[in-house]
Design a protein that fits this description.
Layout (H helix, E strand, L loop, with lengths): L1 H54 L4 H29 L1
Helix pairs in contact: 1-2
Length: 89
């Protein structure tokens, strides 16, 4: 019987670690989403205030293109730097 109790205790400990790991992943993902939405709002405002006045009010598609390029460049730079950190790690 003590062997079974030890095994159950070990399984409970592993489950607890897995739950904590999943909670960390979910909270990190949630905070990442909030950060992405904040950057999204910032970039949209930047394009609205600085690109649209330069191109005129009919610059809807150009503003969207500039926005898409900025977001893509930001994603590439962040992904590249995180990949380098992980390789060093």
């Amino acid at each position: 019987m003590p062997k079974k109790i030890h095994r159950l205790s070990k399984n409970a400990s592993e489950i607890k670690k897995e739950v904590l790991k999943q909670m960390l992943i979910l909270s990190t993902s949630g905070l990442g989403l909030v950060a992405a939405l904040a950057w999204n709002a910032f970039i949209q405002e930047l394009v609205s205030q600085y690109i649209k006045p330069l191109m005129g009010e009919a610059s809807g598609i150009i503003s969207l293109l500039v926005y898409a390029v900025v977001v893509t460049l930001l994603a590439v730079v962040v992904t590249y730097n995180l990949s380098k950190l992980i390789k060093k790690g």
